[in-house]
Please model this.
Amino acid sequence: ATLARAVLRPRPLASPRLEAPRAFSRAARNKKKKKSAPAAMVFDDATFDSVAKWTEKTQIKYVPHAKKGNTKSAERYEQYSQARTVGEALRLGSKAEDLLHDYQRKFIEVKRLKVEVFDSIEDQRQTHESFFSHFPPASAAALRARSDKTFKALTLAQALGVDLQDAQKLREGNETLEMTVGRLLADRTAQVVLEAVEKDGRRVTDCEVLSVLRLWMFKKNETRQNVLPEGQQWVHSDTFGLIRSRTGQYMVTNATREYPHVTQILNTWLHDRRPPQLDERFPCTSISLNSGYAAKRHRDGNNEGPSMIRGFGDYTGGQLAYWPDDDKSSAVENLVHEDRIPMDISKGLVLFDGNRGHEVDDFQGERFSVVWFSLGKYWKVEQEEREFLDHCGFSIPQGKDMGSISKLLPPPRGYTKCQSLGKMFGLKSAEKAKVWQWVDEPNQEEDRAAAKLLSSFNQEMETLQARGRRKGEATAAVAEPKVKRGPLDMVFGRESSRQANAGGDDQSEASPVTPASMADSRMTDAMSGEKRKRGRAQKDSADNEGRPQKRSACEVPELASVEETSSSAEEPSRVAAGPAARAAKANFEQHVASGQAASCFSALGFKPEFASFNFKPEQAMFMSSRSADFSVLAEALQAAAGHPHAAVPIANYFRFLLHHGIDLEKQLCDAFDLLASSMRVSDTVLRSAVKEAFGVVVAKGDDIANAALRGCRQQAAPTTSQPLSVAAVANVRASPSAQRVSELLVAVGSEHRDVTFLIRLLQGMQCVSRTTVLSALSHAFAITQPPCSKEGRAALPRIHYSPQGRQAALIAMHRAVTLAFGEAGGCSKRLVAALLRDCQAWQLSAECSPRCGTPILPMSIRKSDDVELVLAKLASHTAISMEPRHIGQVVQIHSKDKVVEIFGPDQRSLVGSLDKKQVEAVRSAVKADCVIEAVLEEGGTFIAVDCLVLNGEPLTRESLRNRKAAINKAVAPNDRLGVVHCEEVSMSDMTPETVRELLKEAKSQSWSGLALKSLTSEYEASAESTSSFSLVLSSSDAEGA
Model:
C-alpha cells in the first residue's frame, strides 16, 4: 500500500533552471527529514507527581482510539488500551514511557486511588519500586524522588500510631493522605520542640524551624496570581492565622485550627528575636509560608502596616529586592531596577512594607520564606477570633495604632525619572531610605541543644524503619528488643508504657514531658479533637491496658457516687444510688446476656408514658459506651414517632449525651445537625449505595428506604465489631459518595429499624420537625446542668422549687435557644458551645449574636385573610406599622467594607446568578456595614423592609421602630434598591371595614396584601412572629373588588 501511494502520487513539474543534481536533492531530503523528526516529549511535574502514586494494581481507563494513523504506536495503543490496570497495560505491550505520555495527553483516566493495605511500609516501598523499575533511569529517578518523602512520613506516622485509614477520613478539602500525615507530623514535631524549649529555657533555633518546614506538606495555591512567576499556574504557599473571606468576614484558617503547634513555633521563633527598637512584641495577625518559588515583582494589596520576613533552608541567591520609596504613583512594572535594595533574608529578620514594590531573585537549592504581616482593618475582627489567635502566639493590637514599629517605616518619598536638582547644581544627593535588618548572632549552646534534640529524631527514625522491615512484629509474642528512647516517646505516652511493662524500673525517666501550657487553654478545645486523638488512640489503648485508668472530666463518676433526683419536684433531694441502681445494672447485664441490649434503651424514658423529668441517669449509666452509637439515636426517633409529645424522647436523648457523652460538643452538634438540618444526599447516590451494599436495584420513584430494608433483611449479620456512630453518618452526609454511604449501610448492624432511619436522615427527611429538636435541646439544658471539665464536675439535674418555676424556665430557654439558633445562622456549633458553658437564657443572645457574612434564619409571618382575627391579635399593641407586601422572594443583603453578599431564602449566595450592574447598584446604595432584609421583585428591584445589623451592632432584639430608623441610615435608595413605604397607624383607627378597603386598593397596586407589624416587636429569627401578620383579601372580598 505504501508503494502504491508513492507511485500514484502526482509529482509537481520542476523548472529545469532550479532543478538540483539528483545526489544533492537526496542529501537535502535526508537533511530535511532529520530536521523534521519530532522531539522527545517533556513531562511536567504534575505528571510525575501523579504517576509516582501508582502501582501495578492502580485501576485506569483508556480513551478509545486516542492515537490515530498507521503507526506502530497506534497499533500498540489499540492493544494495551483494553487494559483495566497499570500492570495489565504493561503486559499488553505498553511501555513505561507510554504511561507518562498517555497520562499527560489525558488519554488515561485514573479511577479514585484507594489506600492499599500492606503488611509494612517496606512492602509498600518495594511495590512502588517494582513499578518504577519499568521506567528508564531518568524517569525512575524522578518518580523515586517524589515518593521518598511520602514513605518517610508514612513510616514515622505508623510508628506514632497514626491510623492511615483514619487519616484518610480526617483529611479536609483537597488534602491527600500523604499531605494530612505530613502535616500531622510537622505539628507533632513542633510540639516536641516547644516543650523542649520551655523545659530548657532557651530559644527556638533555625534548624528546628527548618525541620518543621521540611515536614510540612504545602498545598498548590492558585489564588496568589500577583506573585506567580512567569509560566507557573500555582505556587506552594499556605496562610496561618487570620484571613478575610469573599464576603468580608474575618476568620481563622483551617491550617491554624488543625495544626496549632506549627503556628506557635513560628511565632515563638519571632518573639524570641524581638529587635531592640521594639518596646513590645511585633504586631501581626497572619503568617504567609512559602516554599520553592521566586515571587515576581508585586505589591500586597490587603496588608496593614509593616511586615517581617525571614528565609530558611540551604540555598544560594533568593534575595528580597525592595523599593522602600515606592509611593504607588506608577505601575509596579515601571519601577527602576537601580532603585531597589536587595537583602539576604537568610541572615536575619528584615522589616519591610508589603504594600510597596518587592520581588525575589532567582535561587538554587531549598528555600522557605516566612512572612509575618497584619491583615487590612484587623481591628474589626471579632473577640472570639482575637482570643484564639492570641493563644496561637499572635500579637494583635487593640486599635489602629501598631506601636513603635510604625516609626521604623517612614512614608515613601516616591521615585522620579528625571534628573534631580541636586545633580543639576552639584548639590549632595539625597540618601536612600534606610532598610532595617537584624542579623542573627549564633548561639553555640542553643545550636548544640537543638542538634541533640533533632539527632534523637534521626536515631529514632532509623530504629523505626528497621522495625518496620520485620513483618508481623506487632502481633508476635516475643520480647521486643530494647529501642533507643527519643522525645516522640515522651510526647505520645509510649515511654511510660514501657516503664510500666518493665515492672516500674527507672522511675526517674518514666514520667512523660508535661504538655505545653496551651494544652489547657480554650484553643485545644477549639481544635479538631479527632485529629488530636487519632494519632495515639491505638497506642494508648494498648499502653493503658492493665493500668489504673485516669477519668476525664466529662466521664461519669463511679456507681457508688451517682446521685438521683427525687420524684417530688417541690422538695428536691439527692440520695446516693443504692439497691435500685444495682438492680438496674443486673437487669441490664441480663439483657446483654440474652442479646437484647438494644431494646434495653427503652428503659431510659423513650416511651410515651415517660415524661422528661422522670429520666433517671443511673439507669443509662451502663450504656455509656453506646453514647456515640447511631442505634441509640434510632431508638429515640422510634420512640418519638409514637409519642404524643415528640420532644420528650429527643430531650431524653440529649440528656443521655450530657451525662455520658465523651466528646460531648461534637456528639451534640452531630446529632443536632442530623435531626434539624435539611441537608440531603441525592437519590442517585443513595440508589447506587443500596445496590453496592445489598445488591438491590432501586428504580426511580421507588422508596429507597424500603428497598434498603429489604436488602438488610436478606443480608447476613455484619462481622464488623465497631458499631455505626452518629459522627460517621454526619460526616458522610456532609461529603457524600456512593461508596461511603454503602459502607454506612453495611455497618448499620442487624437492626432493620436503623437502616430506615439512616436513609430518611440522609434524604433530608426530618423525622421530627426542627421546632421539636430545638424544643428538645432547650428542655435538656433547662433541666440538666452540663458537665464542667475545669471543676471536674459531671452533669447534674437542675433544682426547681416549684412546678411554676420549672415551667417558666422551660419556656424561657425554649425561646432563647430558638432565637439564638436563628441569629447564629443555624450554626449548631456556636449554640451548643454556649449551652455547654452553662449560659443562661438571657445570655444566649450575646453569645450567638448575628454577624455580617452569616445569613440569619428569617422570621416567618403568619398569613391570614381573617381581618377580625388579626385585629384582635394586635389589640394590645398601640402603634402599628402598615406596609405593602411586595411580590418576590425574601433575601438578605450583607455589606461589610463595601463587600456585598446577597443570600436567598435557602441561605445560599445569589451574587453569581445576578447581573453585575444589579449587584454594583446595591453596593453603591448601601452606606454602612449592615444586614438588610429585602424583597427581590421579579423585575430585579430590591425593596428593603428591615435592618438586622448596623455597623456591627445587632438590632434583632431592638424594636421595629428602631430598626426602621436604621434602614434610613444604612441605605441611600436608587433605582435598584429602594425602601418599603410604611405608615404608622393607631389601633383605635383600625376597623375591619377600613382594612378591607385598604386591601382592595393594595390589590389594584399589584401588591400581594398588607403587612401589619407592631412597632415595639423584636425580630424573631427562625420563628413565627407573634406580633406581625400578613393580610390578604379573602375570596369573597376579592370577588367584590
